[in-house]
Amino acid sequence: MAELSEQDIRRLTEEALKQLGAEATPQNVEKVVRQAVHRVETEVPAGTQQVQPIPQPGKGNRIIITAFGKNQIGILAALTGVLAENRCDIIDLSQKVLQEFFTIMLLVDISGCSKDFEAIKEAVVREGEKLDLKVIIQHEEIFNAMHRV
């Protein structure tokens, strides 16, 4: 069984915190991280000493953007505007307004983007903060791994 580095565990923990949001209790975070560590450790090919890297954004990949907060005019335009400016392709989008609350989830192809994943993430989060939104952005593989039962 391969050992994960402290940096790998920290990265898994950060992703768990982001994904769990308000439900990020110590027990929930530990459970998600343990599941991810188990997956990473069991996916290492036999005879390999090095742990397989956690999937990272790159060319040809997709990201999941989730945002929520109080509804106001211009949320959709602001978030999708940032993506359009950076040549990101919105593959699918779902939004819901429930009384005064707004939530949106986007599946975005970043393969044609003019910036890398971190720059896109920073720009979208910054735009969301201007509108008092909580924005979570994850690489699709991380999102899928965290939602496997």
UniProtKB/TrEMBL annotation:
Q: Which family, according to the similarity comment?
A: Belongs to the UPF0237 family.
Query: What HAMAP family does this protein map onto?
Result: UPF0237
Q: What is this protein's record name?
A: UPF0237 protein ENK44_14900
Which segments constitute the ACT domain?
Answer: 64-138
